[in-house]
């Protein structure tokens, strides 16, 4: 049978962002494959869309640019002719980047001068109005994102945020043009005025559908995963049935978002759980990891064990003050990654991970090379089958802020 060549290439700046956009493409009828980093093999990809998941969101800007350009070059070699740079629906970045520098570099490499920035994902409460980003109706800068451990977002004005990190001229496509069906013409005018990146207002899914139509001529789209759910696939074809591996279950959490903290609170009433403290890790890393693995090993079954470093903002700040922001984050990521690998060695075959950076660290430690995308548990969070060096495992990578309060308990009932 002939392989289908992918037409759409997606570059995601973190692994949960990758599964998020892959899940939305799947819901729109695309056959999607997600790779972890740029594959080194020469195997042809049999899919309509390929998502290359990088861990570039918090990397130094020059590394994020180089990794994104390598992904773009690889996607072009696979036959992709249209591209999508997926970043966070809450525009997670710092004044140095990496959203702006990567957009600039992708436009330049593609020989293009214009794209949109569409972070909105209304199904998860992310909307954009008058070029300001809202999270469940609250300005980004007043939402839980202001306390994010790595990318605190303290400004909701997206043209200002993007202009600070990009050489591109930033403009805005306001909602009335979208509602009146004049988005394509308004984008054309912005482009004629020398704008390179237009921040697009979006309040509802209908706005996303109109935007997908109005931008059908753009080679590069950028944004959260919301818009991807409205891109038309080349042809609807049934994918292979999704059959998850079976075995003991575990949940690992490094996200400190309000959503994850609430989900952990809910899960702790049903599942055995342990807290991982960065200060303990700094004192005796191996000892703290061994302790929690020994605890989990005695409890492995189809009732998941929960291991979480997640904490309230004041306690996260205290750990960061004592250890430094980067060291606190790295210690926790390294520990959760090591624990994941040990648990899989002990037989765990169904694993939920909360947090984007955390998922990146865990996925790398497990040697995962590709993810087959399965059914969505909540918008933007699918079950996947992770394949790599060892046995396949069922893996759900949850963006910190996604999922309902009962997510960590309900997720198992969605598993085929
Ligand atoms: N108790 C803690 N103190 C300090 N940093 C922490 C703590 N728990 C987790 N972290 C770090 O916070 C970061 C959370 O980021 P991430 O995993 O991307 O979650 P989210 O998806 O919510 O953004 C990670 O680097 C993680 O290691
Ligand atoms: O677009 C989104 O909101 C997510 O896909 C995402 O990238 C969230 O980031 P993390 O919370 O760091 O996973």
TrEMBL record:
<keyword id="KW-0418">Kinase</keyword>
<dbReference type="InterPro" id="IPR050007">
    <property type="entry name" value="OtnK"/>
</dbReference>
<keyword id="KW-0119">Carbohydrate metabolism</keyword>
<dbReference type="InterPro" id="IPR031475">
    <property type="entry name" value="NBD_C"/>
</dbReference>
<keyword id="KW-0067">ATP-binding</keyword>
<dbReference type="GO" id="GO:0005524">
    <property type="term" value="F:ATP binding"/>
</dbReference>
<keyword id="KW-0547">Nucleotide-binding</keyword>
<dbReference type="GO" id="GO:0016301">
    <property type="term" value="F:kinase activity"/>
</dbReference>
<dbReference type="InterPro" id="IPR010737">
    <property type="entry name" value="4-carb_acid_sugar_kinase_N"/>
</dbReference>
<dbReference type="InterPro" id="IPR037051">
    <property type="entry name" value="4-carb_acid_sugar_kinase_N_sf"/>
</dbReference>
<feature type="domain" description="Four-carbon acid sugar kinase nucleotide binding">
    <location>
        <begin position="250"/>
        <end position="408"/>
    </location>
</feature>
<dbReference type="Pfam" id="PF07005">
    <property type="entry name" value="SBD_N"/>
</dbReference>
<comment type="function">
    <text>Catalyzes the ATP-dependent phosphorylation of 3-oxo-tetronate to 3-oxo-tetronate 4-phosphate.</text>
</comment>
<dbReference type="InterPro" id="IPR042213">
    <property type="entry name" value="NBD_C_sf"/>
</dbReference>
<comment type="similarity">
    <text>Belongs to the four-carbon acid sugar kinase family.</text>
</comment>
<feature type="domain" description="Four-carbon acid sugar kinase N-terminal">
    <location>
        <begin position="8"/>
        <end position="231"/>
    </location>
</feature>
<protein>
    <recommendedName>
        <fullName>3-oxo-tetronate kinase</fullName>
        <ecNumber>2.7.1.217</ecNumber>
    </recommendedName>
</protein>
<dbReference type="Pfam" id="PF17042">
    <property type="entry name" value="NBD_C"/>
</dbReference>
<keyword id="KW-0808">Transferase</keyword>
């Amino acid at each position: 049978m002939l392989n289908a060549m992918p037409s759409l290439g997606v570059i995601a700046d973190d692994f949960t962002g990758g599964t998020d956009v892959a899940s939305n493409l799947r819901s729109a009828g695309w056959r999607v494959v997600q790779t972890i980093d740029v594959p080194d093999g020469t195997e042809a990809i049999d899919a309509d869309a390929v998502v290359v998941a990088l861990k570039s969101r918090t990397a130094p800007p020059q590394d994020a640019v180089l990794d994104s350009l390598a992904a773009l070059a690889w996607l072009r070699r696979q036959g992709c002719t249209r591209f999508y740079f997926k970043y966070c629906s809450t525009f997670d970045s710092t004044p140095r980047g990496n959203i702006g520098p990567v957009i600039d570099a992708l436009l330049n490499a593609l020989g293009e001068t214009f794209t949109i920035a569409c972070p909105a994902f209304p199904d998860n409460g992310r909307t954009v109005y008058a070029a300001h980003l809202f999270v469940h109706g609250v300005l980004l800068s007043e939402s839980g994102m202001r306390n994010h451990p790595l990318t605190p977002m303290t400004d909701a004005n997206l043209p200002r945020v993007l202009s600070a990190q990009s050489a591109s001229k930033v403009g805005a496509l306001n909602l009335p043009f979208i509602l009146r069906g004049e988005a394509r013409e308004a984008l054309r005018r912005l482009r004629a005025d020398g704008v390179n990146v237009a921040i697009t207002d979006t309040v509802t899914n209908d706005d996303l559908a109109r935007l997908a139509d109005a931008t059908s001529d753009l080679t590069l789209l950028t944004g959260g995963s919301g818009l991807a759910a409205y891109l038309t696939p080349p042809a609807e074809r049934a994918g292979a049935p999704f059959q998850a591996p079976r075995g003991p279950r575990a949940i690992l959490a490094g996200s400190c978002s309000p959503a994850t903290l609430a989900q952990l609170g809910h899960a702790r009433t049903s599942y055995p759980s342990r807290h991982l403290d960065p200060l303990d890790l700094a004192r005796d890393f191996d000892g703290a990891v061994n302790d929690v693995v020994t605890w989990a090993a005695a409890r492995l079954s189809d009732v998941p064990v929960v291991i979480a470093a997640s904490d309230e903002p004041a306690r996260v700040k205290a750990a960061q003050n004592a250890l430094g922001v980067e060291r606190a984050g790295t210690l926790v990521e390294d520990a959760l990654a090591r624990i994941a690998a040990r648990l899989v060695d002990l037989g765990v075959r169904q694993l939920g991970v909360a947090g984007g950076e955390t998922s990146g660290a865990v996925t790398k430690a497990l040697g995962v090379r590709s993810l087959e995308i399965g059914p969505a548990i909540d918008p933007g969070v699918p079950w996947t089958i992770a394949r790599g060096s060892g046995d396949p495992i069922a893996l759900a990578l949850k963006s910190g802020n996604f999922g309902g309060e009962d997510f960590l308990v309900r997720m198992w009932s969605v598993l085929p």
